[in-house]
Design a protein that fits this description.
Structural class: alpha/beta
Largest sheet: 10 strands, mixed
Number of strands: 13
CATH architecture of the largest domain: 3-Layer(aba) Sandwich
Strand content: 15-25%
Helix content: 25-40%
Number of domains: 2
Oligomer: single chain
Radius of gyration: 20 Å
Length: 316
């Protein structure tokens, strides 16, 4: 039995400048943020990021790590009285685009899915009607059409395969062999990210014995197969400040503070020095201290309820 457990820094050591990296999750939901933070701390640069984007893209753009972004959207979820998942444009990504600091490769949500599926199936494209008559052909010169070889002769969009050098995803549970499980509301195409990649890295809230996975959820939640996973990272609260339901929700106050850092270079520099220029263990210790200071009773209750799975990494 192969033990695939790694640390965030082990993963970064396997990445190279100029790579195409897929990042799982969706907006501000279940992003592999501990791995994103490790990239921010590294010397990596000129990356192409493929994602249903959120603060992962914003952090990497602000840190100067990104050359190109292929995306369906790059947005943050924000709670409003009408909707707990109101989408707003990611401010650091918006700024990077407006300043011409990153190249832009936009797709429709369904088209990005098909691009990942094509790469996972090792075919050059998949046909679709998605995007016909839209401005995507104006804004994304990579797109082409194909004509059906059958009697209908229909013109279709050829969604190009989005091959990844590496994929980074975060799930709720996993075993040391690389099998992964989501126990929240959605898989968010993380399985396609891993299938499209040469190397797949899975961070999880808690590493458990394989037999324990069946006790956490039904069979349909066991969607990540070890065959697509190169390394497993135990990362309690590794999706913070995005959500990882049902383990924890989005840290709204932290996200608001992050959004405000797009207002000036000085604000970003202060945020980076305070929260990003430190090890993951120090980041998590600081997060726990901030949560306890904000609400000691709630923070302590959450720690007991969730078992603060970081204890297996020696966190206190």
């Amino acid at each position: 039995m192969t033990d695939k457990r790694l640390t965030e820094d082990d993963v970064v050591a396997e990445l190279r400048d100029g790579m195409t990296i897929g990042i799982g999750g969706w907006g501000s939901r279940r992003k592999p943020m501990s791995l994103v933070r490790a990239i921010v701390r590294s010397s990596l640069r000129d990356l192409t990021i493929v994602t249903y984007g959120g603060p992962d893209v914003g952090l990497l753009c602000a840190a100067g790590k990104v050359k190109r972004v292929a995306y369906a959207f790059v947005a943050l979820d924000q709670t409003t009285p009408a909707n707990p998942h109101t989408a707003i444009l990611e401010p650091h990504f918006r700024g990077a685009r407006q300043r011409g600091e990153v190249e832009d490769e936009p797709y429709d949500e369904g088209m990005l899915l098909l691009g990942l599926q094509a790469a996972a199936w090792r075919v050059p494209f998949l046909p679709t009607r998605v995007g016909l008559g839209s401005d995507l052909f104006r804004d994304n010169p990579r797109l082409r059409t194909v004509r059906s070889p059958y009697a209908d002769g229909e013109e279709l969009v050829a969604a190009p395969a989005l091959h990844l050098d590496a994929a980074l995803v975060h799930l709720n549970r996993g075993d040391e062999r690389g099998n992964g499980q989501f126990i929240g509301p959605d898989l968010y195409f993380d399985d396609l990210m891993l299938g499209a990649a040469e190397r797949g890295f899975l961070s999880v809230e808690r590493v458990v014995e394989t037999a324990e996975l069946a006790k956490e959820g039904s069979l349909h939640t066991l969607r990540i197969n070890r065959a697509t996973v190169t390394g497993v990272i135990e990362a309690p609260y590794g999706a913070h400040f995005t959500s990882c339901e049902p383990d924890y929700g989005r840290d709204e106050e932290f996200q608001k503070a992050y959004m405000a850092t797009a207002k000036s270079a000085e604000s970003w520099a202060e945020f980076k020095a305070t929260w990003l220029d430190l090890s993951e263990a120090d980041y998590q210790a600081k997060r726990r201290a901030a949560a306890t200071a904000a609400s000691p009773t709630v923070a302590a209750g959450a720690r007991v309820r969730e078992g603060d799975p970081g204890s297996s990494r020696g966190e206190t």
